[in-house]
Amino acid sequence: MSATSWWRDAVIYQVYPRSWSDADGDGFGDLRGITARLEHLARLGVDALWLSPFYTSPQRDAGYDVSDYRDVDPLFGTLADFDALVARAHELGLRVVVDVVPNHTSDEHPWFTAAVAAPPGSPERDRFVFREGRGEHGEEPPNNWESFFGGSAWTRVSDRPDSWEAQDGDVPALAGPEADGAPAGVPGPGRRREQWYLHLFDVSQPDLDWTRSEVRAEFEDVLRFWLDRGVDGFRVDVAHGLVKAEGLPDADLSLDVQRDVTNLLPMWDQDGVHEIYRSWRRLVDERDHEPMLCGEAWVVPAEALARYVRPDELHQTFNFAFLLTPWDVEALRGAITESLESAEAVGAPQTWVLSNHDVVRHATRLGRDDAATIVVTDGIGPDDPQPDAELGLRRARAATALMLALPGSAYLYQGEELGLPDATTLPDEVLQDPTWERSGHTRRGRDGCRVPVPWSPSGPSLGFGPSDPWLPQPEAYAALAPSEQDGVEGSTLELYRHLLRERRERRLGRGRLTWIDAPAHGVLAFKVDDVTVLATVGGVSVPIPFDHRVVAASGPLDGAADDTVLPPDTTVWLTTPVASADGGVLG
Ligand code: GLC
Q: What mean pLDDT is predicted for residues 111-132?
C-alpha cells in the first residue's frame, strides 16, 4: 500500500457491523464475521473499508451511542478481534477507516452518569450542555430545538426514563421530583435534577460541550488510541454539529436543513467547528501512513461544505448533495459541476456516494416515480407506494457506473454491489431505529437499509449467520447473494468488479472531467481523461458512436456490434481507438 494521498481517489466500502456477517450466531454481525469475509472486498476491488461503530454501547441508536470509546462492544467481539481484523485487512491490501462519534456520548457513558449525579454548575455537568428551563419554574425546555429523530432536543433530568437508573448500579439514587415535599416541577432545596440536557439525537445521546478543553483532549486521545491500533482514518459522525451558536438561541424551524443555508440554524455548521478539525488534522499528520479524516456534514451550500476540506482541515466530506440529486440530466450535471468546482477551489478531491446506513438504498429510491421527494432518512413501509424493483436496479446500476467514473473518491454501502433493495415491508413490531418511537410512529426510520446482507440463497439468514437475523430479510435477497452472482456475466456483482477494475487501471479517480455535447436531449455526456461516459437519464435511447469501444456498460445494450444502441437508464464508458501510423486503428 503506497501512501501517496491514497484517499484522493480511494473507493471506500462501508461495513455496517451488525448486518454484514454473524460469526458467533447471535443474529447480529460481528468483527470475526467481517474478518472471515474480507476477501469479498479484496475481490471486489475497493481500497478501504469503513466500519460503522462497534464500540461499547447500549445500542439505543445502533452503536452511535457510545459508552466506552476505547473498547469493543461484546455484541461485536473484543479488541483482539479488532486487531485481527486490521491485520487481515492490511494483509489483503485494504485500509481500515473507523467511525468516531464526537457530538454526543451514550447516556451510559461514565461522564454522563457522573454529570447527572453532580449538581448544576459542576465540572461534571459542564462537559455536556445542561441548562435551566424556561418558564416560571423552569418547566419549559431552554429553547425550541428539535431532536433529529423527532420531539424536543431537550430532556429534563428528572424526566429521564427510570430504566436508565435501574440499569446503572453505580449512580447514586437521586432525589425525585417530590423529594423535598414540593410539587413536581417546582424548584426547592435539593432539587438538583431540574436542569435540562441537550440531545440533538435520541434522549440517550447527550451532546457534549465542545467549548471545554477536557472534551477536546479526550477525543484527541481517542483518535490516538485507534491510530496506535493501526487504523487508516476516521469517519467523523455529525461533523457539523459539535459547536453550537453562543447563547443557544431559538432556531427558525421553518428552515429546511437539506436546502437552506445550514448555518442559519444555531446547532449546525457554526464557525467554531473548524478549529477542532485543524487540531485533528495536525494529529493525524504526525503519522507516516497518512490517516484520513472524512466528515459527515450535512451542510449546504457547497462552498460552506468545502470549508471543511481546506488544506489544514478534514481530507474529505461526504457529498450528500450528489446522493440527494434526482435522476435528471440537468440536476445531475449541475450537482456534479458544483461539487467539482467547490472542492477544487480549496484543492480537495470530491467524494461521491449513493447509499449508506441512514438513507433508503439507491436501488429502491430510484425505483419510485417520486424518488426526488422521498425523505431519504424516513424509510418506506408496507403501506407506502412500493418501488418498481426492476427499474430501480437498472437506474441504480447506471447511477453507480456514472459515479465510479467521476474524479475523486467514492463510497459504497454494503450490499449495493449485490443490487440489494431496501426492505420496504418490515412490520412495525420489528423496527428498531429510535426515529420510529420518537416521531410518534410517523417516520419509520432507517431499518430498511440495515437488514443483514445475504451470502447464500438459503439457510435461516441466507448465509449471514447460523441463526435468525436481527431484522428479517426480504425474499428477494436470496437470489442476490454473492454465491448466485459470482462469475455470472451481467450480474450486479460482476458489474461492480469490472467498473472498479477499469476505474483503477485507468486512474479515473485522478482524472479530469470535461463536459461534451450530448448526442441527444436526456443524455449526460462527459469525458474523464480518455474515457467518454454517456448516461441515458431522460428515458431516451441513443446510438453509440460506431468508432468507440465499450469499456463498461451498466446494462445490456441493444443492436448489433457495429450498430449499438444505448437503451434508457443505462451508462456506458467508451474509448476511442487510437489511429496507427498506417491509418489503421489500434486498441
Ligand atoms: C449520524 C449517523 C447516524 C446516527 C447519527 C447520530 O448521522 O450516521 O446513523 O444516528 O449520526 O449519531
A: 96
User: Could you tell me the three cell numbers for 2?
Assistant: 503506497
228-263 confidence digits (pLDDT tens): 999 999 999 999 999 999 999 999 999 988 789 999
- Is this structure's pTM higher than 0.90? yes
Contact 104, 207 (CB under 8 A): yes
Domain ranges of the chain: 6-103+213-498, 104-207, 513-575
Work out the angle at residue 218's Cα, subtended by the Cα atoms of residues 217 and 222, and round it to the nearest 5 degrees.
115
Provide the grid cell at 167.
440499569
- Residue 384: how many other CB atoms lie within 10 Å: 14
Q: What is the pLDDT of residue 189?
A: 44
Buried b (16+ CB within 10 A) or exposed e, 261-296: ebbebbbbbbeebbebbeebbebbeeeebbbbbbbb
Q: What is the CATH number of domain 104-207?
A: 3.90.400.10
Confidence of residue 312 (pLDDT cuts 50, 70, 90): very high
Nearest protein Cα to ligand 1, atom 2? 237
**CA 582 – ligand 1 centroid, Å:** 60
Backbone conformation region of residue 535, classed left if phi is above 0, alpha if psi is from -120 to 50, else beta: beta
Q: Are 147 and 437 in contact (CB under 8 A)?
A: no
Q: Is 64 left (phi over 0), alpha (psi -120 to 50) or beta?
A: alpha
Q: Which of 170, 228, 286, 489 is catalytic?
A: 286
Residue to probe by mutation, ligand 1, list 237, 353, 447, most atoms within 8 Å of CB: 237
- Catalytic residue, chosen from 47, 99, 237, 290, is 237
Active site residue 344: no
Q: Residue 171 pLDDT > 50, yes or no? A: no
- Cell numbers given for 299: 451542510
CATH architecture, domain 513-575: Sandwich (2.60)
Q: Ligand 1, residues 66, 358, 411: which to mutate, most atoms within 8 A of Cβ?
A: 358
d(CA 415, CA 107): 32
The hierarchical CATH code for the domain 6-103+213-498 is 3.20.20.80
Residue 384's DSSP bridge partners are: none
- What burial letters (b/e) apply to 228-238, b meaning 16+ CB within 10 Å? eebbbbbbbbb
- What is d(CA 464, CA 452) in angstroms, rounded to the nearest whole number? 7
Q: How far apart are CA 68 and CA 64, in angstroms?
A: 11
What sign has the CA pseudo-torsion 298, 304, 307, 309?
A: positive
The residue whose grid cell reads 476540506 is 309
Compute CA 413 distance to the chain's CA centroid, rounded to the nearest angstrom: 8
Choose among 126, 172, 181, 176: nearest CA to 156.
176
Strands of the 316-317 sheet, one edge to the other: 316-317, 292-295, 233-236, 95-100, 48-51, 11-15, 409-413, 351-353
529 is catalytic: no
